[in-house]
Automatic annotation (TrEMBL):
It comes from the Bacteria. This is DUF2848 domain-containing protein. SUPFAM superfamilies: FAH.
Amino acid sequence: MRELKIVSDDGAKSVPFEPEQLVIAGWTGRDEAVLEAHIQELEELGVKRPSSVPVYYRVDHALLSTRPAIQVVGRESSGEAEVVLFKHEGALYVGLGSDHTDRALEAFGISLSKQACAKPIAASAWRWQDVCGHWDQLQLSSHTVEDGEQFYQHGSVAGLRRPDELLALYERQHGTVPNGFAMFCGTLPVSGEIRFSDRFTIVLHDPVLGRTLRHSYAIEALPVAEA
């Protein structure tokens, strides 16, 4: 990843973006019932519930990828549509990503599982100042390919903590973040079971400004070699 295409009323322009830090914010639900539903989804996979929320996981920023395909080991991973917050030259931008995670590893340790897969992101983003005033109206969704494209997640970002709130909480603990900072801001519950798919599509729609960010990527499952 070397640049972001910033889409605004003035058109689209590319800005250089060199990632310096990547943080995955987990358990970011604003609604306690929805948050509990997601915690229970992961508990069914053997993932321990957090002692407090939200939780921030530092991972390798080299995992960020705008490529149309990623490779994973086996078929135990899955994607999650998430808003991504970027900081560039002191300004904040809102993008879209998938916190693709190895679910088998997640049962052993969430931090370890977050490092196991690439983190696909859309190449385009919006200025935070353009959307912060009507933030709760944005819609986040994802689709899988199973006998045709099907909704995997769908809902309003109003169910999640705002990105500026998550950033403020993180900076309170760790100090001011640098330029090149990127943070995944949490996800929505899935429709049905958490599951592998050969292709995953993520969408962030702004009905007020009539804009949409979209990214689709293929997942190649590499063979699991026996020792």
